[in-house]
Amino acid sequence: ELRAEGLDSLAAQADFFLDPLNLQFLRRATEAVVRELTDRYLDPDSELEEAILSAGAIQVRRADQSEETLDADLLLWGTEFYNEARASIGPSTSETQSIVQSLLAHFFESPYSFEVNPTGVARANARQSIPVTEGDSVVVGEVFVSQGNQITPFRYRALRAHQAALQAAGRIPDQGRDWGSELGSFLLNLLLLGVFGVLIFFYRPEVYRSYRWVFLLSFLVAVYFLIGAGISSLQDEYWPFLPIAFVILPVAILWDGRMALILAVVLGLVTGAQEPFGTFQILAFTVMGGAAAALSARAVRRRSQTWIFIALITLAYTLVLTAFLLKGAIQPGDVLLFIVFAAANATASAILAMGFMPVFEWFTGITTDQTLLEWADPNRPLLKSLSLEASGTYAHTISVANLAEAAATAIGANGLLARIGIYYHDVGKMLKPQYFVENQPGGKNPHDKLKPHTSASIVREHVVEGEKMARNEGVPDVIARFIPEHHGTQLIGFFYEKAKEESEEEPDPADFRYPGPKPQSKETAIAMLADSIESATRAMQDPSPERIGELIQTIVDGKIQDGQLSEAPLTLRELGLIQEQFVKVVSGMFHHRLDYPATRHITESPDPKVETPEAEPVEGTDDPKKVPPKAEQLPLTPSDDPENGQGPNGG
After folding, report:
1. Domain count within the chain
2. Mean pLDDT across 453-458
3. Interval 172-194: pLDDT, tens
4. Range(s) of the domain holding residue 391
5. Are 237 and 247 within one domain?
6. Does residue 203 sit in the same domain as residue 65?
7. What is the C-alpha to C-alpha distance for residues 102 and 142, in angstroms, rounded to an integer?
8. SS3 string of 69-117?
9. Can you tell me the distance from the alpha carbon of 77 to that of 85, in angstroms, rounded to the nearest whole number?
10. For the packed helices 306-327 and 244-254, what is the interaxial angle rounded to 10 degrees?
């Protein structure tokens, strides 16, 4: 019967219970303990004990709704209760005292039930003001946890500590490491991380073509789990410090938000699969924090806006914690503490991530939007010099940038990269600005006195020297590529034809071609088209949308026939969208203007041979609009580059 009651330790003393006198003494002794000590006994709980000792008393509500206050010094916990019980049973043998203690430890329970809500705030305050310690002393037969009760993380650690103590004392054999469990955990983690790896393999295969990219991703994940391992060794309430945002922000900025969002979900699942963090609250908290970091990258373009990251991530954390508070899964007294921890985590993660971004960019060779915007500063040495030494080229650059950004955005390419790349595409012209038509005052053209080979060499030189200048200035590679690729390997047609006319021998076309390479990206291909179109349309007479569209179609067809777009990842559909945007933007650049009477003597052509026909007066005024005379557009052949300084369209 003793074994049936779970009292195996007393089975060896069965003879003691067969003696009626012993049974009578046990009855009197246990009744005395219950009568004298029941109101003073509380079940062992280190956290509860610390909170009550800090408060100094407890408020007791009895079944008849009466209330009274008990001094904390009168309460008995664990070993104190059993020592007091030994004293209350009077003179007896050590065997009798041991049996009484075992019976009390097995059957006796505190008459008090701890109410969470009224005591939550006091408990949280006590936890913050008193150092948390673990390691209560226990006595033989004391119950760690009753059948049917939840095994809390604290109780789990207590049981593991008790098991370790028994193994150290040789009471139970040391079974060694549970290799099956560890292998299962490793396999589960590998499968979850493998989901992310497989998705990247199929949808972002370029990641695997760079060992630096793979290394950085692995490094960020390793840092996350190392910090997580450190947090798991601390108290339970520190899990809001899991630094998911530190990992996700760099991935979202360097690559894209979708890749970062997938990684956030996978890391959340792996976190939830670990023993210390195996709750749905921690899983949801981690995934939502990572998702906020991934999606917030779209809202931030400058490093100075880091506080937007912090605010959005903290808001996501707060909403998750509030949801679990309303569900009753988190104690009210813990929510405020968790929100403070989460805000500190978001702040530290965002600041560290943005602080290390220049290092990550350098290591991976990826240029982010934040860096692109920094290179858009007109006070950068190259741009400043270009605006002062080749003002015509600078004005041309701004117009081309407007065209390129609109077209790139229309097809889903990087419009910002297209704009910034165009800013630097002609920096080489500042070395000899007078040899390019946009910088030639009064129509004076030094090419008239040069041989075609020399002129072609000067025109081609602005690409070679411009790239050298950009590299020496530290311009990111993704921007510097616009300099050689925006001309590709096009033939400098005007000077080539001129050389054929002046020479009896056929000139070598290679001497009249740009060095290349051909455009390798959508953005540089758009730059090539925008550059030629902006130059060509400046020479148009009567630039109506229809004629602009015809000219743009001719230029695009010429680039295709010459094979300049053969290495660019553009589809025919995208080319159609690009042309539509070019027509829209160029038409806006040539919108009609009124000829004001006060300045008519300046704006009218000084050439008396040019007659400007009168148009109908604008309604409500006597001032007529001037319509420029129509002139035939010179034909453009595929070999002509309107931006070569002497092309037929005056680019």
Report:
1. 4
2. 92
3. 766 666 777 788 888 999 999 99
4. 373-591
5. yes
6. no
7. 7
8. EEEHHHCEECHHHHHHHHHHCCCCCHHHHHHHHHHHHHHCCCCCCCCHH
9. 12
10. 130
